[in-house]
Amino acid sequence: MAARGERAADDEPAIVHGTCHHDCPDSCGWTVTVEAGVAVKMRGRVDHPYSAGELCPKVNRFIDRVYDPNRVLHPLRRVGAKGEGRFEQVSWDDALGEIASRLHEAIERDGAESVLPFSDAGNQSLLSMMGMDGRFFHHLGASRLVRAICGPTVGHGMRMTMGTGLGLDGLELEHSRLIVIWGSNTRLTNRHLWPTIERARRAGARLVVIDPIRTVTADAADEFVQPLPGTDIALMLAMMHVLVRDGLVDREWVDEHTLGFDELCEHVATWTPVRAAALCGIEADVVERLAHEYGTVRPAAIRSLIGAEHHENGAMFYRTLAVLPALVGAWRDRGGGLSRSVGSYQDAFVDEDALGRPDLLNGREPRWINMSRLGEALTDESMSPPVSALVVWNCNPLVIVPNAELTRRGLERDDLFTVVHEQFVTDTARYADFVLPATTQIEVSDVVPPWGHLWMGWNEAAIAPLGESCSNTELFRRLAAAMALDEPALHVSDDELLADALGDRVDLDELRRVGWVKAPYPDDGRPFADGGFPTPSGKVEFVSERLVALGQPALPTFVPPREGPHGDAALVARFPLQLMTPKQHSRFLNSGYSHLPKHGPAEGAPFVELDAADAAERGLSHGDVARVWNDRTSVQLPVRVEGSRVRRGVVSIPFGWWMAHHPDGKVANSLTNDTLTDWGGGVAYADTLVEVAAEGIDDTGGQEQR
Ligand SMILES: Nc1nc2c(c(=O)[nH]1)N[C@H]1C(S)=C(S)[C@@H](COP(=O)(O)OP(=O)(O)OC[C@H]3O[C@@H](n4cnc5c(=O)[nH]c(N)nc54)[C@H](O)[C@@H]3O)O[C@H]1N2
Ligand SMILES: Nc1nc2c(c(=O)[nH]1)N[C@H]1C(S)=C(S)[C@@H](COP(=O)(O)OP(=O)(O)OC[C@H]3O[C@@H](n4cnc5c(=O)[nH]c(N)nc54)[C@H](O)[C@@H]3O)O[C@H]1N2
Ligand code: SF4
Ligand SMILES: [Mo]
């Protein structure tokens, strides 16, 4: 067998090294065995500094995905009605010719802003996620997409307190002696961090998990706290109350590195554990114990990721959370502080502007459209200009954007021209005028800047693109050529794009040879031991003038979500249960695997999960078919009560299944809330109120939209 870097003889298997592209914190290293141009085996790369040889239940079968008989391998033109999913194969030339003229038409008629690019991190490699697309749409002057459905809210929240979203590298948890996982499901969503946490526990660390759902991570914790969703800020304020009341504050560190301690003390004086416990639906002594443990055990780390941002108060959650480590001086210690995405450490390598070229806007300022409000953008008749052309890649918006039935109505519009670049005919693609074939990660070389660890990875193409599929960068080069756009920046190669993005900060030859390069991180593992916070005051801001300027309270404040258990009373009276729609299946990555024969069926089918008492009150038993509804729509699902992981007042429908898997052709997001977060541009789909009843009981009061 030829070693990496050596060219294999044609009949000899080759081993090619790559990096996983999924929107997952782990960015694992892999090796692909190729025989006669065909990928025959994929394994975790044993010497990868983070993933160390393991992949995961979804990607262990990635080769099946690549060669799945339902892959889109040729351009398709719609022949049926929108949504029907009937297409005919056409040539690239025909597809590009028609797409180019439709885009020109839309631009001439309605202006360039009538074109909406729509994508997220379906492939989060550097060129695949923000390679040529940025240049192409900037040059056109198309509407700009606020890509904030995942992550930015966490950073925007922390930034108001610390001036930065940078936190503790996850691997530093090895040094912690108290680990509080606050709103993350590590064993499912970030599995390669788990061995680090287990190592810390073997060395004596205690693990507390705070989550409204008893997740697989909660199962493994020393203590599990299960608040009502969206209420954690009350819990944090009460912990501060106890820390101040019982003298557990690190006064020396606070005096030197924080702003507004006296105001904070006054502010939390009324936040007794009893008050917070009532709002969170937990016991007051749990709050006392948690605060005492956090105030006395060193080093103490809080670990979070993304999930808890999806609330109306999502940014405030992280603004408030970031106060806790400062109060107890946790940043002093190696293994102390707040750990979350470390993606921003890659800024040392990547120049996003040199890659995406916002200068090609030439002074124009096209409107911004928030991706989480796609349904509204497509259906709001006051939009001027209307969105008349939608180009989707790297994303499956119909399944993943909240308020899905509104998105569906938009996609059904006859006067909307939709192009989807995809590997499969997803629910979104069924509504497209053209579906164009996309490559998979083993067919294209690229660089992967991770957000869960520090090693930027190289991905070497292992096989040639299947069928007529092409990469995301190639798609936009082809579109630019078909539209006769002669801007030279739209016609450069992938190598040139990489050179623009990485400059001389990364030695590309070395990256290709080794497979990874580590972003700079403080040697002693203590990024803020001596302060140095990039806020206006240079300190951790317990009081924030910048928040006041945003129209937000200066101090950390619990504002109950409107569509939550303490929200709009009239709404709560009609819809007393809070719906969670979590990532729950180890074989799924968002909506990207439920349609595959060895992934979907192994996870069963969608269901609605209830606490036994809530089910009994509604006369529902395990296995019954129920209707789950609110003013957005109604969804029909089998009931799960046995082994339920939700608490009273909360129900849950797993996220990721497609329309075809749901008995009535809806999806979990058909029910969810598309209200944006307090700041940061995220979305509050985890603040969704519903009612549940046995199928056949009509209690909608004619409120349904559809
Ligand atoms: N197997 C698998 N792995 C994945 C993914 C997948 O789909 N499947 N998706 C990937 C992606 S895109 C991302 S962003 C990451 C996300 O990684 P995580 O952030 O770890 O995952 P989530 O499940 O979104 O949210 C974590 C937890 O937050 C909890 N939560 C929600 N609201 C609240 C709240 O108000 N308070 C508290 N305390 N907790 C709350 C949820 O119940 C959930 O258990 O996972 C990645 N990894
Ligand atoms: N209710 C609810 N809604 C959610 C979430 C939730 O937990 N609950 N999670 C939210 C989060 S955190 C996220 S990140 C989003 C994720 O939402 P998406 O980014 O839409 O994630 P996926 O469902 O994985 O869809 C990615 C698509 O990209 C395609 N793809 C993969 N690689 C390539 C490529 O190289 N080129 C092209 N053109 N396409 C490619 C895949 O085939 C797949 O269909 O969903 C969000 N929505
Ligand atoms: S999806 Fe995540 S855990 Fe699975 S191989 Fe990719 S990076 Fe690793
Ligand atoms: Mo995400």
Describe this structure in words.
The strands form seven sheets. A six-stranded mixed β-sheet has the order 5-4-17-16-15-6, covered by helices on one side. Strands 22-26-23-25-24-27 form a six-stranded mixed β-barrel. The longest helix has 19 residues. Helix 9 runs parallel beside helix 14. With 706 residues, it is α/β, with parallel strands linked by helices. The chain contains 25 helices and 27 strands. Helix content is 28%, strand content 16%. The protein is globular. It has three domains: 219 residues, Rossmann fold, CATH 3.40.50.740; 188 residues, Dimethylsulfoxide Reductase, domain 2 (3-Layer(aba) Sandwich), CATH 3.40.228; 126 residues, Beta Barrel (Barwin-like endoglucanases), CATH 2.40.40. The chain binds ligand MGD (2 copies), iron/sulfur cluster (SF4) and molybdenum atom. Iron/sulfur cluster binds next to loops.
